[in-house]
Every structure is written in structure tokens, then in C-alpha cells.
Amino acid sequence: MASKDTICIQGGWQPKSGEPRILPIYQSTTFKYGDSDHMGRLFDLEEEGYFYSRLQNPTCDTVASKICELEGGVAAMLTSSGQAATFLSIFNICGAGDHVVSSATIYGGSSNLFTVTLKKLGIDFTLVDPDASEEELAKVFRPNTKAVFAETISNPALVVLDIEKFARLAHSHGVPLIIDNTFATPINCRPFEWGADIVVHSTTKYMDGHAATIGGCIVDSGNFDWNAHADKYPGLTTPDESYHGLVYTERFGKAAYITKATAQLMRDLGSCQSPMNAFLLNLGLETLHLRVPRHCSNAQKVAEYLEKREEVAWVNYPGLPGNKYYELAQKYMPNGTSGVISFGLKGGRETCVRFMDSLKLGAIVTHVADARTSVLHPASHTHRQLSDEQLVEAGVQPDLIRFSVGIEGIEDILADIDQAMAAAK
Ligand SMILES: *Cc1c(COP(=O)(O)O)cnc(C)c1O
């Protein structure tokens, strides 16, 4: 297997002789066929091919295959956003009356999706403390539990997940483990190697890396045996009447989950990525293996610097020895976690806001994980829908500053923090 570095550059698009060197943008809603029967076979999923870009597009599929290779999966699809990826990953195997176990320390958008919108669709979530013991966690499973969901490194609490523990729990209850690997990226961690079954990404973050495009991706490891738990997953193991009674696991084997998500959910919900965005995402992916280590080394230096400053009340970065998650981070992400740090300043909320307002190089944006240093106050921005109680449950202190360290010169980033701290006093 090629190294991750080589996959970043050369994965996906494999031009034949005389074809473009660079991934072409198939900016076309539709595809032409010579005879009507051929098109009919495509609609019956009897033959592979393109007919309408809401379902599949060659540019998008090529970029999905690069991410699939990076994660070590068997099939993948791009989505219009990370939110769409998370939604489809769950909705592909759950419906009204089902239940999902999720870590409580997840992205605010995901917890809204789970506890507000999916609840309206009749899917019930139990949010759990990811650090609870296996015995405690086993208690929340029900006969109708269909999946377990968690983040490799949670946004913004930076909880590092014990992936093996969660995989054991999921598998002993006959359900797959879905991991949001947005922060770690496959450069730092491949969840499939630790037992996860499905990975989702917001490609909007490090993968794009330039804050240019919103996007998402779902990758399937192909390892979960849907047929062994056929009664739980009738959508995959019994006839789909909307495709003349085809059974996904019979016809598509290890690609059943992604094929169903594409053929059924993309067809009906249409949250596809545009070919242009997929092209831009691919440019980002070509340098992912260079940018991620630089984000991590810059963040490590910022975290160490903050720890020494007397203005700082606390610093949370899993790369710091002494951090609650240092050992788990060393195990699952020995080359670094991410470029995101959280910390609080003495003086509380007002001082934190003055500090952020005084940054010159670091910008206040609703974003993380791109090339530019950025900063956000979750309690007043991304997580403002959550009550104080929910904030603490999600691992977010009211004075938490989420600092996304970019790949600028480290001396400039440190100088900016220094001047903003002086101004915030
Ligand atoms: C941003 C983010 C999402 C949502 O992705 P969008 O592309 O903004 O829809 C999901 N999970 C994590 C961990 C994120 O950081």
C-alpha cells in the first residue's frame, strides 16, 4: 500500500495515456448514452455508470476514493457538508423508533442534529460520558440501539476517544461504531485500524484546509457484518422496493452501506457536493500530509507557551504531558492530535473577549482547522444554543477560548498572543 504522503498527492485520479494530468471538473448535471436500455440498466443498479450528478459525479467520486484510500476503507461518498455526512451516516441505518448511543462531547452542530432534528424524526439518542467505564456505558444500550457515534478528538472539548473501548462496546451489542475523524484526519489517526466501522468527515476543516469549501465525506471500512445482525438492519438486508426488490448486502457485499446511501439517500435527499467544490477539496488534500504536522507542531509550541503565562487560568491540549488525555493521544495519535487548543484566561469571560478582540493575526471566525490562525468563543458563538448545563456536559467551560493554530510563522503567532494578552489586562 502506498504511504499516506503518496496517496495525498497521487491517490484518486489515475489518468490513462493522453488524459489530463490533473483531476478534471466534470461540470455536468447529466451524462449521455447511446441507447435507452443502457440507461435503464444504470437506473436498476445493474451496471455502474453516471447518469445524474445528484447521485454520482466522476469528479466527486474520484476525490471520495482518495479519502477512502487515506482512511483504509472500501467505499466512500462525498456529501455537501460535514453535517450532511453525519446525518446520512446515521439515517442510512436508523429510522423512527431506533436508538443511537453517542458521546456527549461532540461538535455542537452534531448534538443539535441528534437531540433536536433527529429526535423529531423519531430517532432517540443517549449522550454518554466517553470516559465512563465499559460497565457504565453498556447500561445505556437498548434492543433498538442501531449505532454508536463519537469523535476521535472532540470539537471543542478536545477529549481524545478510547476508540478500542467504544469499538468493543458497539460490537458486543451488534452495532457499528461511527467515528467523526474531522480533527485528527487520517494523517494522525485511522480509526478503522482501531476497530471503527464507519468514518465521517467535515472536509471543510483540515482536508480543504483553506476555508474555501464546505463539504463532507462518509467512508465505510467494509468490516461490519450487516447480515450477522440482519434483523437490526432491514434497509440493507431485505428488498428495497424502490429498486425492484434489490437487496444491498446481496448485490454489493462490502460496498452495501455506501451504495445504499448513494442510491437511496442521495437520490431522495440530494445533499451532494458540487464537482467544483470537490476539485478544490482535492487541491487541499494534496498538501494535507504537509499541513497537518505543521499545525500540530505550531499548536504544541503555543500550548507550551500558554502554560507558562501567568495570565492563563488553564490550557487544554492533548499534546501536553499532564493533560488528561495525553496517554490516549500518545496511543492513538503519536504524531500529534490537531492544531486546536482550548484555554481560559484569568479574569473570566470579559477578559477572554477582550483578548480575542485584540488579536491581529488571529481572526475571530466561525471556523477551525484552516491554514490561518483563528479564534472562537464557543459559549457565545457555536454552542450558544446550549444551556449552561449542556455546555458543561459537552466539555465546554463558559470561559473556553478555542484557538485554532494556523501554519503561519510560529514567532508571529506567539507575538500576537503576547500583545493581545497585554491589551486584555
Ligand atoms: C465542522 C464540523 C462538523 C460539521 O461540518 P460542516 O462541514 O460545517 O457541516 C462536524 N464535525 C466536526 C468535528 C466539525 O468540526
Structural account:
The chain is of the alpha/beta class and about 425 residues long. The chain has two domains: about 15-285, Type I PLP-dependent aspartate aminotransferase-like (Major domain) (Aspartate Aminotransferase, domain 2); about 290-425, Aspartate Aminotransferase, domain 1. About 40% of the residues lie in helices and about 15% in strands. It has 17 helices and twelve strands. It has helices spanning about 5-10, 35-45, 60-70, 80-90, 110-120, 135-140, 165-170, 185-190, 235, 250, 255-270, 275-285, 290-310, 325-330, 350-360, 390-395, 410-425; strands spanning about 75-80, 100-105, 125-130, 145-150, 175-180, 200, 215-220, 310-315, 340-345, 365, 375, 400-405. A seven-stranded mixed sheet has the order 1-7-6-5-4-2-3, sandwiched between helices. It has a five-stranded mixed sheet with strand order 8-9-12-11-10. Helix 1 runs antiparallel to helix 3, helix 3 (about 60-70) runs parallel beside helix 12 (about 275-285) and helix 15 (about 350-360) crosses helix 17. The model has no long low-confidence stretch (mean pLDDT about 95). Pyridoxal-5'-phosphate (PLP) binds near residues 86, 107, 109, 182 and 205.
List the helices and strands and how they pair.
Blueprint (H helix, E strand, L loop, with lengths): L3 H7 L25 H8 L14 H14 L3 E5 L2 H10 L7 E5 L4 H13 L3 E5 L5 H5 L6 E7 L11 H10 L4 E4 L4 H4 L9 E5 L13 E5 L13 H4 L10 H5 L3 H14 L5 H11 L2 H21 L3 E5 L9 H7 L7 E6 L2 H11 L4 E2 L9 E3 L11 H6 L7 E4 L5 H15 L1
Parallel strand pairs: 2-3, 2-4, 4-5, 5-6, 10-11
Antiparallel strand pairs: 1-7, 6-7, 8-9, 9-12, 11-12
Helix pairs in contact: 1-3, 3-12, 15-17
The structure holds pyridoxal-5'-phosphate.
